[in-house]
Write the structure tokens for this entry.
Amino acid sequence: RTSMPSWQRAESISAAVARQLAGVVGDLGPLGALALVYFGTMLLTEVISNNAAAALMFPIGVATAAQLGVDARGFVMAITIAASCGFSTPIGYQTHLIVFGPGGYRFSDFVRVGAPLDLLCGVVALALIPYFFPF
């Protein structure tokens, strides 16, 4: 049996996830899919680095756009912004970890201030991305 190259495996996994995502959003259409990709990326960047979250979600976002038959630029922009909005935990970004201990912060301090900021950025991004990158 011939082994499939790793890039083809990743592409097929991304396509499978995109099909599932497109099925989940159903009647919500591209905006619903955009919101799921955005908030999925944002949740990932809270527990892993922002670079890793973007790298994991990029093929899923592009495949989702292709599955829906829309321009992928809005999905790429959503992933870019969401990967930069890891405010709710000290884990997602290096400078958060740098100030976490010496600053005397608690994990709950990040959640209390970061969660509303994450939501605000998400609402603004989801309102503006379709305007600048129409489906």
